[in-house]
Amino acid sequence: MASGCEQKVVLITGCSSGIGLRIAVLLARDEQKRYHVIATMRDLKKKDRLVEAAGDAYGKTLTLLPLDVCSDDSVRQCIDSVKDRHIDVLINNAGVGLLGPVESISMDEMKKVFETNFFGTVRMIKEVMPDMKKRRAGHIIVMSSVMGLQGVVFNDVYTASKFAIEGFCESMAVQLLKFNVKLSMIEPGPVHTEFETKMMQEVAKMEYPGADADTVRYFKDVYIPSSIDIFEALGQTPEDIAKCTKKVIESSQPRFRNLTNSLYTPIVAMKYADETGGLSVHTFYNLLFNFGSLMHITMSILKCLTCNCLRRRTISPD
Fold first, then answer.
1. DSSP states of 43-70 as a string?
2. Which residues bind NADP(+) (predicted)?
3. b vs e for 93-110, b when ≥16 Cβ sit within 10 Å of the residue's Cβ?
4. Predicted structure pTM score
5. Closest Cα to residue 61, out of 16, 24, 14, 90?
6. What is the pLDDT of residues 172-228, one digit of tens each?
């Protein structure tokens, strides 16, 4: 127990791997033991990696609960099993990706992305928000993405799901402020996870029925190599995102939006500098189709553009 104050109860979704696992372990292993972490995942059979990483914190400052954010019953049962249904910090991390030409993606696949990334988050917020409002205290954190601020080619559906949750939370934040409940978005750029690596390898081999040959070629031969370049140049680790998230939790006045990667600040700023949208659309077009072979140079330019004043607009893991 933290000396002088009670532990904060932190519930995190999607903890079997990646960012969720790292946030859970970082908070559970806090030297001052300020947090009691409830790490959740859909399938507890996948708990081994988390349990190993948590070490002696498991069973002390970290406990596990099953939770499927796509199920009303599962969400209710999970929160009901928490003492007094009291959650101080809710971290909505569970999410799924979807990549490829939209012509080849079924409507059911698209709905699954929204069911997890949008409705799953909304379902969690709806379940914990009434108690937070009643107590006039609490912090809701949503793992969004820079793709919730800027559209990215061939990530159409995933981007749409993140835009949706950004709009929802931007609206909710105003109401919650009246109840002294904080709401924060964490907006990473590319993050090196096994999920991303595996997805890149798989999509390069797949067939894309319904999409024309030119579109498939642009996706496989232009987008995928460029995307790998971007990941190598700009990618952060799940540990970086966990450290950023911990900073947001511990801030006395947390920001609503928290870009974790200062290299993306110019990209987002460019979008808002031109209300017609033409600047960002044509810039991304040229980066992908006209300057693809110069991607490494482009990444270097982005790094040069990121001066100290831009870094102040982001939350750094360091």
1. -GGG-HHHHHHHGGGBTTTEEEEE--TT
2. 14-42, 68, 162
3. bbbbbbbbbeebbeeeeb
4. 0.91
5. 24
6. 999 999 999 999 999 999 898 776 777 777 887 888 999 999 999 999 988 888 888
Q: For the chain, what is the domain count?
A: 1
Through-space distance between the first and last CA atoms of the chain, rounded to whole angstroms: 26
Indicate whether 223 belongs to any domain: no
Binding residues, as ranges, are: 14-42, 68, 145, 162
What is the span of the domain harbouring residue 146? 8-212+236-266
DSSP character at residue 191: B
Ramachandran region of residue 80, left (φ > 0), alpha (ψ -120 to 50) or beta? alpha
Residue 163 counted as domain residue: yes
Q: In Å, how far from its chain's centre is CA 167?
A: 15
Tokens for 226, please give them: 């460029």
Q: Which residues are annotated as a binding site for NADP(+)?
A: 14-42, 68, 162
Asked if 290 and 282 touch (Cβ cutoff 8 Å), the reply is no
CATH code of the domain containing 37? 3.40.50.720
282 assigned to some structural domain: no
- Run of H or E residues at 89: strand 89-92
Separation CA 190–CA 147 (nearest Å):
10
Would you say residue 273 lies in a domain? no
Residues in the chain: 318
Please give the positions annotated as active site. Answer: 158
